[in-house]
Design goal:
322 residues; mainly alpha; 14 helices; single chain; globular
Length: 322
């Protein structure tokens, strides 16, 4: 496979996973605007921006002063994260970049995949923050998540399982590990600054990972922060857990095998296996989880760079002479 094709498929997977992550967080966040206390709303915005490693438009997120300011500020922040073209990580831009990468690799994806992604992209182009804010903005985020999930299902059902398939999956899993670790670290950071633990914040995090029912089944209806992190990080049966994602990323790397840069390939495979070992043990302690998640977040970024070096942006002199 040409390196530029691998690059396009890899980044298409990453951008769509990023959009899905942000949609889930935004759906939960706008739902809190209806009847939740100001502290919880402010916490939610902080968590979204910290997890995306971004600063809000005003530069800081001051505590909301009243209900009127809360609604106005939330409208501005939602616009920035959803439709702002100058924000490279906005949902709008994620779809633009994903579609452009898909357009460049049309010969590797199925016609059904292109139709699914292009339809979702065109639908998003017709909307703006004023339009979705008129009724229930959470319906927009839920609907966009469904469109991304539909694309993933169409991909599973129609795409040939060659290297192109593997690079899409690799992009999805590496993006998921990075964003999952980041949002958990954001949760821990704000948790540490609070005088008391708020169960609603941690229950909300479970919902972001579609894990609330699994938590109740595994533990109980009493939400304990350490147990929440144990589930979200280490449970191999939970589709969105970090362990499931790193295991899947390592499996994909083994399927792809060594690339044109063998040293980087071996390092990527080794780091993937190291990440798998890092997220298997339950710790049941928020303070103990922080350094582990810091390492997972840093190593997932390093894994991305190794993938780029091994398969996409390798030096030409390592290629065999013809």
């Amino acid at each position: 496979m040409l390196s530029r094709s691998a690059q396009g498929l890899y980044w298409m997977g990453r951008y769509l996973e990023r959009a899905a992550h942000l949609c889930r967080l935004m759906q939960l966040q706008v739902e809190t605007l209806v009847d939740r206390p100001l502290r919880e709303i402010h916490f939610g915005w902080n968590r979204v921006y910290r997890s995306m490693n971004q600063a809000p438009p005003a530069g800081t997120l001051e505590a909301f002063r009243s209900d009127d300011y809360t609604l106005a500020d939330s409208y501005t922040l939602a616009d920035h994260l959803t439709f702002e073209p100058t924000n490279p990580d906005s949902i709008w831009n994620c779809f633009v970049y994903a579609r452009e990468n898909a357009r460049q690799v049309r010969n590797y994806i199925s016609a059904e995949m292109w139709l699914s992604l292009n339809t979702a992209y065109l639908h998003l182009q017709k909307l703006n923050i004023q339009e979705i804010w008129k009724t229930t903005p959470e319906s927009f985020y839920a609907g966009t998540s469904v469109e991304i999930n539909t694309f993933a299902g169409v991909t599973d059902a129609t795409m040939y399982r060659d290297e192109g398939w593997h690079f899409i999956q690799l992009g999805r899993y590496i993006e998921r590990v990075q964003l999952s670790a980041a949002v958990m670290l954001a949760q821990i950071a704000d948790h540490g600054r609070q005088d008391e633990s708020f169960d609603a914040d941690w229950a909300n995090l479970l919902h972001a990972f579609h894990a609330f029912d699994a938590y109740v089944h595994t533990y109980s209806v009493v939400v304990q922060p350490g147990q929440v992190l144990d589930l979200l990080v280490t449970d191999g049966l939970l589709p969105a857990s970090i362990r499931r994602s790193v295991d899947s990323a390592a499996e994909v790397l083994r399927a792809i095998g060594h690339g044109p840069a063998p040293n980087s390939s071996r390092e990527a495979l080794g780091l993937g296996d190291t990440l798998c070992k890092c997220v298997t043990a339950r710790r049941n302690d928020v303070a103990v989880w922080q350094p582990v998640l810091d390492r997972v977040h840093a190593d997932s970024k390093k894994l991305h760079h190794l993938v780029i070096d091994a398969y996409i942006d390798y030096p030409l002199e390592i290629l065999p002479a013809h």
